[in-house]
Hints:
- This protein is mostly beta strands.
- The protein folds into 2 domains: 4-153, Sandwich (Immunoglobulin-like), CATH 2.60.40; 160-234, Immunoglobulin-like.
- Helices cover 0% and strands 64% of the residues.
- The chain has no helices and 19 strands.
- The strands form 3 sheets. Strands 1, 2, 3, 4, 5, 6, 7, 8, 9, 10, 11 and 12 form a 12-stranded mixed sheet that branches. A 4-stranded antiparallel sheet has the order 16-15-18-19, with no helix packed on it.
- The N and C termini lie far apart (42 Å).
Amino acid sequence: MKAKVIIIALMILLSIISTNAQITWNTVSFKVLCADTNIVCQTNGTAVLTCTIINKLCCPLNCKQSIDSIFYQPSGCYITLCNPNGCFPSTTSSDVMVIGAYATVIAKFEIHSSSNTGNGDVRVRFENDWDATEGFSFHIRNNISTSLKKTSITASSGIKNYPNPFSSTTTIKYRLNSAPGQLVIRDAQGRLVSEYILKANDEEFSLTEKLTPGLYFYAIYSNHELIGKNKMIVE
């Protein structure tokens, strides 16, 4: 069953049309529940996607709420995220909330439009902060009609690096759908560490940047689309 939230820019008052349906997505460690809702948002208005996050584990869970590909947000559109830690400006791309054992929290994405809602796309998502392949993404495309749909984050799509763990240098293997590509590296708290442009004909990238020992996540984009992600450990 696919869930879709439709956000349409119209010169009418903001309104939310809710149904009794509840859409649920499950991972091993948590599940996400969102109302099967249509949202109509006027120009210069705000639409809100509200989700319930339930920890299925008997221990605390670090759940990362994030705005992926923030550098591709549509002109005239910005997104803020809210959770029990507070509400964060659009310059904050991620925040990690600690959900207690079997506990439930509410998290929101606020989509703000202006009088000039240009074209573009951006993803927002929830994921297990210790396992980036375990989570769900919502893809927002902004045009006259803006759709918000869920896509699962499954395997790493063949993206890998070797050696892993490593101390000084590692090689990341990838395959681009189209060029140019982009490599984005974040630390375990979701903070941006580095961005690199990937060339069309290359299928591997040698990372020689000196990184502080610890856990990192990296993602590769092709034509503004996420094609794979994985984690690496620096010793």
